[in-house]
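User: I'm putting together notes for a lab meeting next week and I want to include a structural view of one of the chains we've been expressing. I don't have a solved structure, so I'd like a prediction I can at least talk through. The sequence is below, exactly as it appears in our construct file.
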Amino acid sequence: MPVGVKEIYDNFRGCESIEAIYVPAKKADYYKKRLPEELHQFIVEMEPVKKAKK
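Assistant: Thanks for the context. Below is the predicted structure for the 54-residue chain, given as structure tokens.
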């Protein structure tokens, strides 16, 4: 989900082409509460990428 998404509508229902919904790991519960239950299986929790020190 792009940063800044405030609302998720029912437009995902019946979509057969979803393979994954990438969300920040810290926000996974937030999205699970807002997405329809049938989409929970597609949620992939992403850990933050640590920047290498120069």
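A couple of points you could mention at the meeting. The first helix runs from residue 28 to 34. The longest strand covers residues 21-24.

User: Perfect, that's what I needed.
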